[in-house]
Amino acid sequence: MTAPATAASPWIRRYLTVAEPRARLLCLPHAGGSATYYLPLARALAGDGVEVLAVQYPGRQDRRHEPCVDSVTGLADLLAAEVLPWAGRSTAVFGHSMGAMVGFELALRLEARGVVPLALFASGRRAPSRQRPNADPVHLRDDAGLLAEVRTLSGTDARVFADEELVRMVLPALRADYRAAETYVHTPGPRLAAPVQAHVGADDDKVTLDEARAWADHTDGAFTLHTHPGGHFYLTEQVSEVAGAVLGRLAELLE
């Protein structure tokens, strides 16, 4: 499937173009993350004919002058129209942490338009129906408190925190993303037709195995679960293992 020339979008980054890809993987970043987080995964998948389309949210990197979007459903609403030129039976969705929630809501919107993704890969996030009480929302903390939380998760290059100018640039996006993640409330409704594969770090205190398994309640398709060594950002160190699991599932679905 080849995207039309008019499909260029500020939301989509193709770091490695694959000639006549057998599948595409639309990748959605975590809170505070950017499209470049998925460059290692793009490299790992390109040799096997899978092209990564990495999503760039407003308010960061080359989109830093655009207003941030501070709700999961708001991001999904805006993305649905943007990704339609790429969507179809050979395109799957991969989201990490907050990105898994955006991916889930995006998949629901695509299916409501008659476009069923090949699969949803939900990484590092409990199922939408598994809410946790939060007495200390990170997005309501002062700047120091917000940055302290981000440092504990190891999802941001430590060099960012050493550069005061960079910190000022990333704070609005961080706060908006944490607000989106922490205020998201799942509304019971249709289950996905697309199959779901959940991925979780064995030492991730943000997601228990039971919370990850509950993704099975949100699909009428098949469900699989992969556990990886590491914490919340296990993906940083386990790119090859995750790529292998994704490739294996895509191969099954494309048969």
Q: What's the main sheet like?
A: 7 strands, mixed
Largest beta sheet: what is the strand line-up? 1-3-2-4-5-6-7
**Residue windows where pLDDT falls under 50 for at least 5 positions:** 1-7
Return the string of H and E elements: EEHEHEHEHHHEHEH
Percent strand equals: 5-15%
Query: In percent, how helical is the residue content?
Result: 25-40%
Strands, total number: 7
| Count of separate DSSP helical elements | 8
Q: SS-based structural class? A: alpha/beta
Question: Notable features of this structure?
Answer:
single chain, 255 residues, alpha/beta, seven-stranded mixed beta sheet, 7 strands, 36% helix, globular, disordered N terminus
Structure write-up:
With 255 residues, the chain is of the alpha/beta class. It contains eight helices and seven strands, in the order ββαβαβαβαααβαβα. The chain has helices spanning 39-46, 72-83, 98-112, 143-153, 158-161, 164-183, 209-213, 239-254, and strands at 12-13, 23-28, 50-55, 91-96, 120-123, 196-201, 223-228. The chain has a seven-stranded mixed β-sheet, sandwiched between helices. α7 links the parallel β6 (196-201) and β7 (223-228). α1 (39-46) crosses α8 and α2 (72-83) packs across α3. The longest helix has 20 residues, at 164-183. The radius of gyration is 17 Å and the shape is globular. It starts with 11 loop residues before the first strand and ends with a helix.
